[in-house]
Structure of UDP-4-amino-4-deoxy-L-arabinose--oxoglutarate aminotransferase:
Amino acid sequence: MIPVTKPFLPPREEYDRYLNGIWERNWLTNNGPLVNELELRLKEYLHLDHLLFVSNGTIALQMAIKALDLKGEIITTPFSYVATTSSIVWEGCRPVFVDILPDRLTIDPKLIEAAITPETSAILATHVYGIPCEVEAIQRIADKHGLKVIYDGAHAFGVKIKGKSIFEFGDISTCSFHATKLFHTIEGGVVITKNAELLKRMAYLRNFGHDGFDRFNGVGVNGKNSEFHAAMGLALFPHLEAIQMRKKEQALYYFELLKGLRVKFPEIGGIDAYNYAYFPIIFPEVQQLKKSMKLLEDNGIGSRRYFYPGLNRLDYTHGECPVSDQITERVLCLPLYHTLSKEEQRLIARLLLRVQNN
Ligand SMILES: Cc1ncc(COP(=O)(O)O)c(C=O)c1O
């Protein structure tokens, strides 16, 4: 069986070393030393001023919306994972969908202004598949209209533009460290901001609003993460470069193998460091996608319609986004993970070409 993705596990003894420390200290959660060490390592690695390790990428988005005190409408992308939209709704705001760029699949900044109303409080956009949004154009619009900007960077670990981490843009960025992500802590995520005041607010939010044992600063939630999760991230760090290199090699090999296949790949030019976290292909029509998925499945190969349906098509949302509607019908992510072999990639490519040429 070739799954569509597979979590990376560090050598057992490397994780065990961290576990031994946890047993010695008997400190399992609540801002423990490994959580602090992981936050420091991440700040160093990504060259960021402030971040907080939280329980997952969804709570990261919810905390960001809460910390910025957003109300009313939030302009967002229809082409992302459901958590981008559900977080908006969960926080009592209304998602307003703006269509995506056909090549890069991120929100189209040219369409944002027409969607702004007196009710709009923010823009929440996704660096989908790690492809950076048009951050400068988005910031100009936000500044002009007094809107906040949140980036869902769940897929964007390690991505850089203009010589800096993609997480430096916007008021708050979030990332997911779910087991299937490039860098993971089994479950986990981060909120990132340059603003020390916002960081402080999110630190309260993460811990029920506790300001000491018996005082509270506003309404909080439990967004904390544990020492065991932090340990996984720390044990994974030494392998990160190798994982990233491997994914890049695999992606470049797919490009070569799939030259004869009439599919489109999202545009990834103009990025200083890209992470090749996913391998999406866009078929010319949905029938070819369905036949390809079926033949892959018959051969024990997983693939995923990531993202389908579009988020404007959920039963609690609406919005007309013709570009996104077309892409969501025709996009498929192929297997990509550290142990995927060249032989397996060749098999996948052969099957895809067989469907096209039959
Ligand atoms: C774009 C996007 N946003 C948010 C999330 C939510 O992250 P988590 O699974 O860590 O809650 C995901 C998860 O896959 C995602 O892909």
Remarks:
- The chain is about 40% helix and 15% strand.
